[in-house]
Write a structure and sequence with these properties.
Elements (H helix, E strand, L loop, with lengths): L6 E5 L5 H14 L3 E4 L8 H10 L5 E4 L2 E2 L5 H14 L4 E6 L3 H11 L6 H19 L6 E5 L2 H10 L2 E4 L7 H15 L7 E6 L1 E2 L6 H6 L3 H6 L5 E2 L3 H15 L3 E5 L3 H11 L1
Parallel strand pairs: 1-2, 1-11, 2-3, 3-5, 4-5, 5-6, 6-7, 7-8, 8-11, 9-10
Length: about 270
């Protein structure tokens, strides 16, 4: 279905300068394309953290995974994104979505920001992208949209460079392939250039404690359900499985958590 080059991103949470910059430099050495930082109010802010990571590396891209649109006025989010893109030499990717439920709950609890209706949150995503495009001028900051429902997928088709499909951990391969085709078709001439990003939460057979809480299921069910959120086997078997996913699903970009970076580096080497 696609012969696009593989791209791999590592997701990490900054703890302190030594840890964070160490992760960035190792990710660059290990062949990862991008370092991603989440947008949650219980962790450091992603924009300054990513700016430091970009300054400590030379080729590594940095990006948000993903900012929640209700947390920032569209112009402010676009301003931060454009600034980081400009000062990193174009190595910044803006990932944006309408916000996971727990992020929106924290925003209300910690910031007093009420949760807007879904349609308004999606409109904020669109306005942020439009503001970014206006600030970029002739430059172009790549934008990823986390798209769940049909309206979000339609917006991604119209505005995004990259898409991650917010789907159940038990979504079948056929369902994911159909959604990828749908977005490409809606995007028209841009469709074949779009990149689709799939998160892998577990490498191997043991899930970190946060995975069952995030996905609301356990490792046994993920294995039995042939979940695309896990990747198991030897490095060669994992590499072959990613080749299959690229061929059958049209997905060539994958994210892994930093706890698996060392292990996954062997897979990257096989697919280089």
């Amino acid at each position: 279905m696609t012969d696009k080059a593989f791209k791999f991103a590592v997701i990490a949470e900054p703890k302190d300068e030594k840890q964070w910059l160490g992760i960035a430099r190792r990710a660059e050495d290990q062949g990862f394309t991008t370092l991603l930082s989440a947008d949650v109010l219980t962790a450091p802010s992603p924009f300054p953290a990513l700016a430091l990571a970009a300054g400590a590396t030379t080729t590594l891209r940095v990006g948000t995974w993903v900012i929640a649109s209700p947390l920032r006025a569209p112009r402010m989010a676009a301003w931060d994104a454009h600034t980081l893109s400009m000062l990193s030499g174009g190595r910044f990717d803006l990932g944006i979505g309408s916000g996971r439920p727990f992020v929106l709950e924290d925003a209300e609890r910690l910031l007093g920001v009420p949760t807007p209706p879904a349609a308004e949150r999606l409109a904020q995503v669109e306005r942020t992208i439009d503001e970014l495009r206006a600030l970029d001028g002739d430059a172009h900051t790549p934008v990823l949209i986390a798209a769940g429902g049909p309206k979000a997928r339609a917006l991604a088709a119209a505005k995004a460079d990259r898409v991650t499909l917010a789907a159940s951990p038990f979504a079948t391969r056929e369902e994911i392939a159909a959604r990828v085709r749908e977005v490409r078709e809606q995007a028209g001439d841009r469709g074949e250039e779009m990149e689709f990003v799939s998160p892998i939460y577990v490498i191997g057979d043991e899930a970190p404690p946060w995975v069952p809480r995030l996905l609301k299921t356990d490792m046994k069910a993920l294995i039995e359900g042939d979940s695309l959120n896990i990747l198991r086997g030897s490095p060669r078997e994992m590499a072959d499985e990613l080749l299959r996913r690229r061929e059958t699903l049209g997905i060539s970009c994958f994210t892994v958590n930093a706890v698996f970076a060392e292990q996954f580096a062997q897979v990257i080497e096989l697919l280089a």
